[in-house]
Request: fold
Amino acid sequence: QDKPKIGMPMTTLNDAFWVDYVNFAKSAAEAYGYELVVTDAQSREDKQLSDIETLVNAGVKGMILTPLSEPLGIQAIELLDRAGVPVVVTDTFPGVEVGYKPNYLAFIKLDDETAGYNVAKHLIEKDGVKNLVGIGGVPGISTSEARNDGMKKAAAEHSEVTVLDVQYTDWTLAKGQSVMEDFLTRFDNIDGVWGAGSDPLLGAIVSIENAGRSGIKLAGIDITEAAIDSLEEDKLSMLAGGHWVMGGYGVTIIHDYLNGHETDQPVYEMSLYYLTKDGIDDYRSAIIDPLAEGKSLVDWKAISKTSDSSVNHADVFQVIAP
Amino acid sequence: MLVETHTDTGSKDHLDTPRQPYLLAAEGLNKNYGPIQAVKGLDVYLRAGEALALCGENGAGKSTIFKILAGEVVPDGGRITVSGSEYKPANASQAVTAGVSMVHQEFNILPHISVAENIFIGRMDEFSRFGRINWKALYSAASRLLESLGIKCNPRAEMRSLSPSTQKMVELARALSTDPKVLLLDEITASLDHDDADTLHRLMNALRAKGVGIIYVSHRLQEIFLSCTSIEIMKDGSWVATRPASELDEDQLSALMVGRDLADWKRPARPPLQEEMLDVSGLTASGFRDVSLQVRKGEIVTLAGLAGSGTDEILDAIFDAGHLTAGTIRLEGSDYAGKSVSDAIAAGIAMVPKERAVEGLIDTQSIRFNIGLANLSSNTRGVFVDGAREAEQAEQGADMFRIKARSTAELVRSLSGGNKQKVLLAKWFLTNPRLMLLNNPTRGVDIGVKFEIYDLMLKLSQEKKLAILMASEDMAEVIRLSDRVITIRHGEISGVFEGPEITETNLINAML
Amino acid sequence: MSQNTTASTLLRNGFSMEAMRVYFPFLVLVIVCIGFSIFSDQFLSARNLETVLRQTAVLSIAAMGATFVILMASIDLSVGAVVGLSAVIIAYFMQSLGIAAVPTGLVVGAVLGAVIGGIHAKLKVPSFIGTLGFMVAGHGLMLHITGGRPIMIRDETMRGIGSGTIAGVPSIVLIAMAAFIIAYVIQHHTVLGRSIVAVGGGEVVAQRSGIKVDRIKIITFMLAGIYSGLAGIVLASRMGAGSPTAGTGLELDVIAAVVIGGTPLTGGMGGVVGTAIGALIIAILSNGLNLAGVSSYSQMIIKGMVLIAAVIISIDRKKIGIIK
Amino acid sequence: MSQNTTASTLLRNGFSMEAMRVYFPFLVLVIVCIGFSIFSDQFLSARNLETVLRQTAVLSIAAMGATFVILMASIDLSVGAVVGLSAVIIAYFMQSLGIAAVPTGLVVGAVLGAVIGGIHAKLKVPSFIGTLGFMVAGHGLMLHITGGRPIMIRDETMRGIGSGTIAGVPSIVLIAMAAFIIAYVIQHHTVLGRSIVAVGGGEVVAQRSGIKVDRIKIITFMLAGIYSGLAGIVLASRMGAGSPTAGTGLELDVIAAVVIGGTPLTGGMGGVVGTAIGALIIAILSNGLNLAGVSSYSQMIIKGMVLIAAVIISIDRKKIGIIK
Ligand SMILES: Nc1ncnc2c1ncn2[C@@H]1O[C@H](COP(=O)(O)OP(=O)(O)OP(=O)(O)O)[C@@H](O)[C@H]1O
Ligand SMILES: Nc1ncnc2c1ncn2[C@@H]1O[C@H](COP(=O)(O)OP(=O)(O)OP(=O)(O)O)[C@@H](O)[C@H]1O
Ligand SMILES: [Mg+2]
Ligand SMILES: [Mg+2]
Reply:
């Protein structure tokens, strides 16, 4: 019964994106014969560091880390190096490059700034938005700040576009709603809403409906079931996401490493899947439905060097698109 | 009414009036607090229309008996009947339902709600339908009750706006509003002014006439003879004697209580003293104005006044001089510029406050901690407390005032009322003051210890030239101790009496 | 202070004094409103005032219930979790039961409140810790039920409650007003209300006066739970979802609203009128700062300081006595 | 209960009684440890015990300071913000000053503590609200200083404090132990300690015994601030950074540690020995549940319940009297 363990110290688990991330990683761990031990730091850095220490003591053979911040990433990599635990970092830049310590095997990332940039570009170039408001995540968290930066960059490239304001929402629906209510009162000319996450956008939709405003375009990051429904009802114009695959691929890298296979690249960059209304049917049939039926979306053995040494990770680590 | 079930056993000299059934009979009561046997096999018998005084030294177990009878403490043994039926209250409201009501010695009021609610709060259902209160009915019931008891106050007033004495009378009204068969009064007069005490004694007589039985505790023995028909004396939780009040006098009672005859206690003759300790002139603050007085070294001066006359405020103002609006204080001829209690302590002033629970003692801490608190500045080495000296001092205080406790590490909250008062006295006397301010110093202290405290006060004033400025509601105490009495009326001095002029009539006339 | 004294001499009985005290929080409200109307033109617009009322609804309902707990000198840190659980459970059952699932919110609140009150009263666990435990556990339970994803509410009636108006007034504002009136009546005119105040004013005295203190404690926490349950219904209807993070952090806003409203944490005085004003102050603060375009970092600093200033102005030190 | 009484007869003086009371929290600690050692082989390993001590350092240091505030019957919700600010400001100044910036953490703590205490004592703002205001404002200030991004600490000495050992014991554990010993001495053997307990046991009594209550309040909050500042230093060295979210949520863990340790929120009794055990219990709970592989949602539910159970076992109801 005692399978080898892989640790996954999560930053938060109260969000659809990270739930998908963990579930996908679990399917990988199961396929390779590991127990995936998941902890939740509830967005507290000191807690995440403690969780990492505890996972080391629990005897994990490898770790998939999404650090809450760069310094934490460095601390963790050094600590894991001393303990001899290999680590794959996902999502958030850990402050150091791969190879900083020999145990730091790879970094699988999404370019948050680019993601924020692309979503804003869609709003500006496809939807013709001129007066944009931003619905942010958590102040001080790198993913959140980088997405904001990307959005601002896109706006800056278009002189006719004004970013009226950006406010934080702690990624929650409730704050998204009340922040949007205040935006609507303050600005009569809003025609676009950029969201760092999709939950707060759902809150913003409710505010806009309540206020009886029309003609406002909304788009944001993270493809979740609830957000897809809104997309279908034309309440959103575009969603970017699919990067919840990162953790699962991290498990593959660890598995291969433990079996003597180095991964092919230090850094893997996930290009996001950009979903608009016309892609919904395909996305549902290819991803949502199989997931709901408990099917694994990936043939894990087929992308592992351990089972097939000719596999190149760079070719197979992709966002799953319909 | 049930048939009589108890008669005197004859084994103890209970009152011999077997014709009437007992209203309340408690037999073989026992209560232990850990190793402490607070009550040991005690019997209490009470007849309708009788007022029984329960007498005993501090820590004898009186309050414990009361708490048992009022359903607040479960006895470890014994059997109680009320009107012949088994009585085993699980809480205060069951006791009230069975006809037993109690007025506690401490204040039991809800300061931010109305007088009427204070009276009826536990029985608001009587004034409500479907949970909604009929305020009119409530206020008029309260109004009627207060009027019938002769208590003057507005039932709509917020409780905290009343004087302490009136608050206590409202508590009495609360107890009486339940039409009790048995009324328990624990040192109630300690909180009442003269008028209200008179009202109380009138009420007690009226209640007795109506067949109510009263058990009464007070350490002011003269009161007992005023209003009680019989006296039960206890010692260390055990029964000692029960007598009709008419068969005893104050001296015999105190002899039975403390085992010594205190009849011949007289203040020794005292040489006149000259050197001035305290010289206060033109003192004014809220509650009094333009008070000038002197206390010489070795002298005991008393401020006498009705409740609310300003005596408490004068003592407070000297001790905590930050609130004075006018006037000067001189100590031993030099100006005293203190503005706070710590200045006062540094200048050698000590003060035993009136309300020991609020101002005097921290009951979650030990005797030692409490005694040490006023002596922190002297028991230190740098920022550190000298624990050994502190302990030694506490032992000394416990001996000096005969504090009944297992050790000085015992928590103050587990002491009896009178013993708490002794801790308070020890705390302040051990600061070795040159001026002592005493506000009702022997409140709740038993008669034996009371005289020891008097001896101590006189000895210190004589030998250490301690100057004492005192206020007391106990007229006997004022007359026994004072070298000089200054009467206060409406915040102003209304008379000064010395030597043979100090008589009850003189003082009362000047106070009214 | 002197103003207060003068006023009190003009007034004869306790209940007018009680009425007076309500003006202090009100004063804060007026100051805050004047301040914001200077910095933002839209602040006093009818549309924004409607928005503010909408934004206050959940907070004020939850704070009504919490007022009773604080009047009793206890504290309730589980408010946010109970509100959230109510919202999540409604959303969960609405998937199968439709609008008939709404009352489950009240049931959840009542049951949780009774359990919390029972642990406090019978097992003698201090309310701070008891409710802290339920706060942590409650959020865990919400995550379990939702699996970490918001449960969307599709029922149009439910969504209509959140967004609709009745006679021009948002329906959730009407619900909040009804909740306030009921709370007012409970506090001022029922045996329960007076017993709560009595327990807060002095538990031993209340006990000795024949009040069944334990029972009152349990009922009060149950009442607070029901109010939280109602707040959860309003939250769910307003958000159109039961989100796993619903209600997070609400407890601190609730306590702040109660205290700014003049009910000290030592209990025994104050009440729901002040709380209604306190809740408005808290909601207006967020709304006004957003309208004035203050950056969110600075908003936090300003909010913290205004909270302290509001209490400096609003609480009645003379009556409270010792401030802890 | 009867066990307690029997034991107390065996012991003569108050300090032994005091020592007795410490056994209740200790009992909880033992139960929790036995529980976890059943579910996880690694739990009792030397390496894990070292880890637990490391993980307790920040919490226990901050909780020492908070114990004094709670002994005084006040409360401090600003602990997390002050710890965080200390960490952030050290990291900020370390960029230019190097290791010499470390004492700024203590200064920040002392100054903030004095301001918080001053507002509480002089302006009579209830500590719950005053410190809540500083909690909100403090987090805003941290975001301002950092610009929303963590400030890295590159100084090797500083990083060494966080990860290094002295004679086999982690240096931050040694710091925590020193902080504990100092707190113990302050509580039991200094005038300040007596005064704090006296103010908590009865403010009027303390004032009437010559204690300058306002001054003690300010000093106590300052002392707590210094402890928080020290905790910030340890946190910064452990994390290798001053992060804008450092210390978030720490205040609730701190208060829970103090109360589980036997100091009631009504003050006047208890103390730092219990708090040290309480902090260990809180830290072990996270560690043990993670080791045992409990899912994180369930962890929250279990933690909430254990918190309540721990208090049921550990607090001394007889001594506390009324539980609010
Ligand atoms: N809860 C308690 N814990 C420990 N000891 C107690 C407790 N209550 C009472 N005692 C002890 O029981 C004894 C009797 O106390 P009680 O209060 O009944 O005395 P009392 O006759 O009322 O004295 P006083 O005249 O001083 O009020 C005392 O020794 C007291 O210390
Ligand atoms: N919460 C409590 N816990 C333990 N013992 C208590 C408590 N409250 C009261 N007591 C006990 O009850 C007894 C009475 O205490 P208290 O001084 O309050 O009343 P009292 O004896 O009637 O005082 P007095 O004689 O001055 O009227 C004391 O012996 C005390 O130990
Ligand atoms: Mg007594
Ligand atoms: Mg007594």
The CA atoms of residues 230 and 396 of chain B lie 38 Å apart. Residues B 62-63, 416-417 surround magnesium ion (ligand 3) (CB under 6 Å). The first helix of chain B runs from residue 62 to 69. Residues 1-16 of chain B have pLDDT under 50 and may be disordered.
